[in-house]
Automatic annotation (TrEMBL):
This is Ribosomal RNA small subunit methyltransferase A. The gene is rsmA. It is an enzyme of class 2 (transferase). Signal peptide: none annotated. S-adenosyl-L-methionine binds at residues 17, 19, 44, 65, 89, 111. It comes from Niveibacterium umoris. It catalyses: adenosine(1518)/adenosine(1519) in 16S rRNA + 4 S-adenosyl-L-methionine = N(6)-dimethyladenosine(1518)/N(6)-dimethyladenosine(1519) in 16S rRNA + 4 S-adenosyl-L-homocysteine + 4 H(+).
């Protein structure tokens, strides 16, 4: 049994670990650097560690929360002028509609639940055009995968697909002791800034996703095997890609070249 914090019992099914270290909180809020009146949405505000300072800085905050007990707390603590609560699952939330109704692009922040972090990142990538930047706390292992370079052990599908959409930087680590209950892993803060339209040079995003997924689907196999049915020997020769190499040796630019070649051949 996890000891209740401020009367609330952390729910395992929601991946709840509440940030309690005031120094870390100040450091995160400083990194977010929200300005008065700037549209901002917090995913999973929990017990409000970031919520209060963000409201103080921005004047108004949107939050997406699934836990009804925490929603009730938020309603008791803040006025409608200070906070707009969107009750529901962040994996299904339409961030695009929120961005469309805001004056300016959104800042998106949050301590993302470890158990849904990867699908949530892909969901958020769909709304990149309406986002100014995103600052998240995630499991350090996930952040390392997001920012990894080719030939690094952490390099894979997650990193390639997010690096296509965003400029990303790992900011700093957050130790387990900064939370209650303390997780078994170290966390990290990462910033994602959507790339300009001119930087997205793939002709078919869905095809890029297919190529990347196939290349990393069987990591021990060579590209000749993983991309079978997508790229033939003639394609490897035309692109100057060694079919005897593995997916983790290819750069983002290589994956885009393969996808664009295949799109032109279709």
């Amino acid at each position: 049994m996890i000891r209740p914090l401020d009367g609330h019992l952390a729910r395992k099914r929601f991946g709840q670990n509440f940030l309690v270290d005031q120094n870390i909180i100040r450091k995160i809020v400083s990194a977010i650097a929200v300005k008065p009146g700037e549209p901002i949405v917090e995913i999973g505000p929990g017990l409000g560690a970031l919520t209060a300072p963000l409201i103080a800085a921005a004047g108004h905050l949107h939050v997406v929360e699934i836990d009804r007990d925490l929603i009730a707390r938020l309603k008791e603590t803040y006025t409608p002028e200070q906070i707009t609560i969107h009750e529901g699952d962040a994996l299904k939330f339409d961030f695009g509609a929120l961005a469309a109704g805001s004056e300016g692009k959104l800042k998106v922040v949050g301590n993302l639940p470890y158990n849904i972090s990867t699908p949530l990142l892909f969901h958020l990538a769909e709304f990149a055009t309406g986002v100014k930047e995103m600052t998240f706390m995630l499991q350090r292992e996930v952040v390392d995968r997001m920012v990894a370079d080719p030939d690094e052990e952490a390099y894979g599908r997650l990193g390639v697909m997010l690096q296509y959409r965003f400029h990303m930087a790992k900011l700093f680590d957050v130790p387990p002791g900064a939370f209650h209950p303390a997780p078994k892993v170290t966390s990290a803060i990462v910033r994602l800034v959507p790339k300009a339209a001119g930087e997205l040079d793939c002709d078919d995003d869905a095809l890029l996703a297919k190529v990347v997924t196939a290349a990393f689907g069987q990591r021990r196999k060579t590209l000749r095997n993983t991309l079978k049915g997508i790229l033939d020997d003639g394609g490897f020769d035309a692109l100057g890609v060694d079919p005897g190499k593995r997916g983790e040796t290819l750069s983002l630019a290589d994956f885009v070249r393969i996808a664009n070649y295949c799109a032109a051949k279709a």
